[in-house]
Amino acid sequence: MTGATENGVPVGVYFFSQATSYEEGVAEANFVLSNLGDYNLSYPIVLDREDPMVEDARTNDLSVEQHTEAARGFLETIRAAGYQAMMYTNRMYYALYLNLDTIYQYPIWYAQYADEPDWPYEFNIWQYTESGEVPGISGPVDLNLQMKPIE
Predict the structure, then answer these.
(1) Under 8 Å between Cβ of 73 and 49
(2) How far apart are CA 23 and CA 29, in angstroms?
(3) DSSP tag of 2
(4) Any residues with CB less than 8 A from the CB of 60 and at least 6 apart, and which?
(5) 2, 21, 117, 131: most buried, per Cβ within 10 A?
(6) Is the whole model's pTM more than 0.90, yes or no?
(7) Which residues pair with 145 in a beta bridge?
(8) What is the distance between the alpha carbons of residues 78 and 76, in angstroms, rounded to a whole number?
(9) pLDDT averaged over every residue in the chain
(10) DSSP H helices in 14-147
(11) Cβ distance 21 to 77 under 8 Å?
């Protein structure tokens, strides 16, 4: 982040969650907040919740309500601390594991590796590939398009 901000690159924070309850979501958010330092964020603090697709993941047997509450704990805590909060995930997780009425009050960063997104709901950022190329970076990188302002 230091290098990015020194070179005028807008920055945000991204956190992959395995919280299983509202309280754990709050604890994860507080962990992120305690590690921000003095950085001036241009983008939100983003919560990533996905199906980790491993047999022993601690989130495997959670209900939609439990997944939603864990996300809500994180997002509400970030917002209450005065930062923009955003939700990142993919179509399957959105559709199967989250209550959209609760989550769609936050900006959405939608991941779908395709030529065009086909998610029928609004989103702010679209991650369209995981195999992009960026000069100066060796290996594939995720590429994203900001589709609308993040408020």
Answers:
(1) no
(2) 10
(3) H
(4) none
(5) 117
(6) yes
(7) 126
(8) 5
(9) 93
(10) 22-34, 64-80, 91-97, 100-103
(11) no
73 SS3 class = helix
Q: How far is CA 70 from CA 10, 14, 29, 97, 119, in A?
A: 28, 16, 10, 11, 23
Strands 45-48 and 85-90: parallel
- Tokens standing for 129? 């590939």
Extract the tokens encoding 71. Answer: 């996300």
CA atoms within a 13 Å half-sphere pointing along the CA-CB vector of 6: 3
Q: What is the pLDDT of residue 121?
A: 87
Q: Are 63 and 114 in contact (CB under 8 A)?
A: no
Region of 145 (left: φ > 0; alpha: ψ -120 to 50; beta: rest) is: beta
In 10 A of CB 28, how many CB atoms? 21
What DSSP assignment string belongs to 100-112? HHHHTTS-EEEE-
Structure tokens at 14: 């991204």
Contact predicate 106/85, CB 8 Å: yes
Calpha distance 41→142 (Å, rounded): 20
